[in-house]
């Protein structure tokens, strides 16, 4: 379709030319030639001339079109080509400059067009280009070119002349980078070739499709004795050289290599000289840029020496393991001996320690361990026996010692076999005490001669332990009397007839504060102050007729002590026995003081009740209703006071014997504080004021509510009682660490610092002589302390004499005892 368009155009143009010639002839024939015969004959000439003009027009048009097409193509090439394209006219002037020329030389078109080529190429080269233009010859050469920035580069210059118009197209290409790349490629190929020829392994290349070997390095000759040419010429050589036992697996693995699966094999090959060569092969597929496999590259490495080294290393590791096991075995035996020594030395209960050593032996060194000991009558006693866990019935020893054991004891020589090791128990060259028998089995390796040393060591230690135990029993039998004197709780000392201390036991030292070293060998008068006066008051008796001891005061370095002392005379002197009864004496004094105080405290309300009752019972003395009510109220108040005193005495006694029952339940501590303070205000003097301070967020108390209230009431009443001058009593409540803290702070008399340590003692009173007019039984704070401690809390005080006191007690909260009531209920249910 497209090829017919130029032909149609040419025919149309030729027809126009012929038609034009015909019209010209017709006009000439009609008007110029005057329709003559000659004018008619001229018609062919006109037609031929018109055809010739048309043909010439067609040729001119086609040539113009081809020239325009060539110029447009050249312009397109100039625009797209990265090479520099220049147009040079016949005078050697640059008439065209492409974008590639701008990039290569750095000049823009308006800077170079119209300038001589010599400004760019130099005179010599520009002359050669001009001559090529004149001669119409193509010129190819390589020369050094310089860019606008002064950089010199190697360029391939091609000059293509054109005759019409007379000019030349000059193409300049930078070939410096390509040359470097070719040199680098040649160098890389040389390095690759050198590596392949000198590496201590064989490299090869195979085509991917048919797995035909296309290259193998010369090292193949050293590996298997075949040259590279022989290898390439015989495709089946490799398969024949693989060891028959490895061939199938190796060929299957090599055929399976693909783009994602490399080959890693170790196998044997048969060399030309019959050697078996262990090789390691690794091969991978070489991929192009798109990931398609091109070829397979791999290598063969002789690993015979490495495998030999690995085998040797394996043998060394095996030997090392055996050596390590032997070392562990020796260490285990050493540790057993050390542990046995530690056990035997830990106690004089030799039957227990020997049994423990027998158990230790069965854990690693024996299936059974038996210790037989000679009795006084010459018979053998099974002292200890232990078996493994679980014990082996196959190797279990007989219930009675066999004759071999007696033979070892009589000969005092060990007996060793793979299954038994019998060793005599002998100590210090004396006769054998018995025998140690160790039985091997599944958990214990057979015995060897190297086992005798540790066996003898253990047997010797057992013998020493048994011997020491017997000696200890003898020593103990002889020193029982001395042990009694040493550990008796009463002081015992011996004074000879010259009055010198001969014996002074530890209890005497503790009572008097004089050590045994200072007392023994020293006259008794120098050891005990005023001994001459005291000794006259000490009752003396005999062993058959003991006497009642006397209670005497004794001055010591620890202060005055009260002692109960008596003496027994015998031929060597006098033995005195004394006992420290200072606490009992002090308690007796407190009891006497308590009786006097309690009598006084009881007498006062009793007298008041008695007097009021006598008054009410008189008939000769008339009382109005107000008077009778006053006396009845007095009787009630004094009866309450009397009941309080009696209850305190009873409660103190119950606390002492542990008969007070406590119930734990949650209750509101703030409510209890408010109620106690409100109750105290009704009885407190007018000069006493109360300040209640309850913190926010106090959790419930987990204790006995009634007993806790009793403690708080007692402390508040004490604060009122010991504030004779009035003042403010502060009662506080706050949360502590998983507990609740109660505080009672007064501004009263205070407590001297030397009295504070005894304030919670039974029967103790701060003012025993009632010098301040403050009564009491001395049981209140003792009861408070005991109740708080039994409820799981604590109580303490802070005080300064003359400035008041602060009593604090702390009880558990429900956060500390979340299940207290539940546990209590369960225990009550179980008791029921």
What features would you describe in this structure?
With 832 residues, this protein is α+β, with helices and mostly antiparallel strands. It has 6 domains: 4-65, no CATH class; 81-174, Beta-Lactamase, CATH 3.30.450.20; 181-302, Beta-Lactamase (2-Layer Sandwich); 323-476, Beta-Lactamase, CATH 3.30.450; 480-580, 2-Layer Sandwich (Beta-Lactamase); 661-823, Histidine kinase-like ATPase, C-terminal domain (Heat Shock Protein 90, 2-Layer Sandwich). Helix content is 48%, strand content 23%. The strands form 6 sheets. Strands 16, 17, 18, 19, 20 and 21 form a 6-stranded mixed beta sheet that branches. It has a 5-stranded antiparallel beta sheet with strand order 2-1-5-4-3. Helix 1 (4-32) runs antiparallel to helix 3. The protein is elongated and about 200 Å long. The protein starts with a helix and ends with a helix. The relative contact order is 0.03.
Summarize, please.
The chain folds into six domains: 4-65, no CATH class; 81-174, Beta-Lactamase, CATH 3.30.450.20; 181-302, Beta-Lactamase (2-Layer Sandwich); 323-476, GAF domain (Beta-Lactamase, 2-Layer Sandwich), CATH 3.30.450.40; 480-580, PAS domain (Beta-Lactamase, 2-Layer Sandwich), CATH 3.30.450; 661-823, Heat Shock Protein 90 (2-Layer Sandwich), CATH 3.30.565. Helices cover 48% and strands 23% of the residues.
């Amino acid at each position: 379709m497209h090829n017919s368009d130029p032909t149609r155009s040419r025919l149309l143009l030729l027809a126009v030319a012929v038609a034009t010639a015909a019209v010209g002839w017709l006009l000439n024939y009609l008007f110029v030639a005057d329709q003559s015969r000659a004018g008619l004959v001229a018609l062919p000439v006109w037609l031929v001339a018109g055809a010739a003009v048309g043909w010439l027009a067609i040729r001119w048009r086609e040539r113009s079109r081809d020239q325009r097409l060539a110029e447009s193509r050249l312009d397109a090439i100039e625009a797209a080509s990265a090479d520099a394209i220049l147009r040079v006219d016949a005078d050697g002037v640059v008439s065209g400059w492409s974008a590639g020329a701008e990039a290569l030389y750095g000049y823009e078109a308006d800077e170079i067009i119209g300038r001589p080529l010599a400004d760019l190429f130099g005179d010599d080269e520009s002359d050669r280009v001009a001559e090529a233009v004149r001669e119409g010859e193509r010129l190819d050469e390589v020369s050094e070119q310089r860019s606008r920035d002064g950089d010199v580069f190697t360029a391939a210059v091609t000059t293509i002349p054109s005759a019409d118009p007379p000019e030349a197209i000059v193409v300049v290409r930078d070939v410096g980078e390509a040359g470097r790349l070719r040199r680098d490629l040649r160098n890389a190929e040389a390095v690759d070739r050198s590596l392949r020829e000198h590496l201590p392994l064989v490299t090869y290349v195979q085509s991917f499709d048919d797995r035909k070997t296309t290259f193998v390095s010369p090292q193949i000759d050293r590996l298997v004795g075949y040259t590279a040419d022989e290898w390439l010429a015989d495709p089946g050589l490799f398969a024949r050289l693989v060891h028959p036992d490895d061939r199938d697996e190796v060929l299957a693995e090599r055929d399976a290599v693909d783009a994602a699966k490399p080959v890693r094999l170790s196998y044997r090959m048969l060399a030309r000289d019959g050697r078996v060569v262990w090789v390691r092969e690794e091969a991978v597929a070489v991929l192009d840029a798109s990931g398609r496999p091109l070829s397979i590259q791999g290598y063969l490495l002789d690993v015979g020496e490495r495998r030999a080294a690995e085998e040797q290393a394996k043998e060394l590791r095996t030997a090392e393991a055996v050596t390590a096991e032997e070392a562990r075995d020796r260490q285990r035996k050493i540790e057993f001996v050390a542990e046995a020594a530690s056990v035997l030395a830990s106690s004089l209960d030799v039957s227990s320690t020997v049994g423990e050593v027998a158990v230790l032996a069965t854990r690693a060194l024996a299936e059974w361990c038996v210790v037989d000991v000679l009795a006084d009558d010459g018979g053998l006693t099974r002292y200890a026996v232990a078996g493994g866990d679980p014990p082996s019935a196959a190797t279990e020893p007989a219930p009675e010692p066999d004759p071999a054991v007696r033979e070892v004891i009589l000969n005092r020589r060990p007996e060793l076999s793979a299954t038994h090791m019998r060793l005599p128990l002998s100590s210090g060259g004396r006769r054998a005490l018995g025998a140690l028998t160790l039985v091997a089995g599944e958990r214990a390796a057979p015995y060897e001669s190297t086992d005798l040393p540790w066996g003898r060591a253990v047997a010797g230690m057992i013998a020493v332990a048994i011997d020491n135990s017997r000696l200890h029993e003898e020593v103990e039998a002889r020193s029982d009397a001395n042990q009694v004197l040493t550990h008796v709780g009463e002081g015992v000392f011996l004074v000879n007839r010259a009055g010198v201390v001969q014996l002074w036991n530890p209890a005497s030292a503790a009572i008097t504060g004089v050590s045994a070293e200072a007392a023994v060998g020293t006259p008794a008068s120098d050891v005990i102050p005023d001994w001459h006066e005291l000794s006259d008051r000490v009752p003396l008796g005999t062993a058959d007729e003991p006497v009642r001891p006397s209670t005497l005061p004794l001055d010591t370095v620890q202060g005055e002590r009260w002692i109960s002392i008596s003496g027994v005379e015998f031929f060597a002197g006098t033995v005195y026995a004394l006992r420290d009864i200072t606490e009992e004496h002090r308690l007796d004094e407190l009891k006497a003081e308590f009786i006097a105080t309690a009598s006084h405290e009881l007498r006062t309300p009793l007298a008041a009740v008695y007097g009021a009752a006598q008054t009410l019972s008189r008939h000769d003395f008339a009382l109005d209703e107000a008077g009778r009510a006053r006396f009845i109220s007095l009787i009630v108040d004094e009866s309450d006071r009397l009941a309080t005193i009696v209850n305190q005495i009873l409660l103190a006694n119950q606390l002492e014997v542990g008969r007070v029952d406590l119930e734990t339940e949650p209750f509101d501590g703030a409510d209890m504080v408010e109620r106690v303070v409100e109750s105290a205000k009704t009885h407190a003097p007018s000069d006493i004021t109360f300040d209640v301070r309850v913190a926010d967020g106090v959790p419930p108390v987990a204790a006995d509510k009634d007993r806790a209230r009793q403690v708080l009431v007692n402390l508040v009443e004490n604060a009122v009682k010991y504030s004779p001058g009035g003042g403010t009593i502060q009662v506080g409540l706050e949360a502590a660490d998983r507990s609740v803290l109660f505080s009672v702070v007064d501004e009263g008399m205070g407590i001297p610092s030397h009295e504070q340590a005894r304030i919670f003692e039974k029967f103790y009173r701060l003012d025993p002589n009632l010098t301040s007019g403050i009564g009491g039984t001395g049981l209140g704070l003792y009861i408070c302390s005991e109740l708080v401690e039994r409820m799981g809390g604590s109580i303490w005080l802070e005080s300064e004499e003359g400035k008041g006191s602060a009593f604090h007690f702390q009880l558990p909260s429900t956060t500390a005892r979340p299940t207290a009531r539940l546990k209590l209920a369960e225990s009550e249910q179980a008791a029921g």
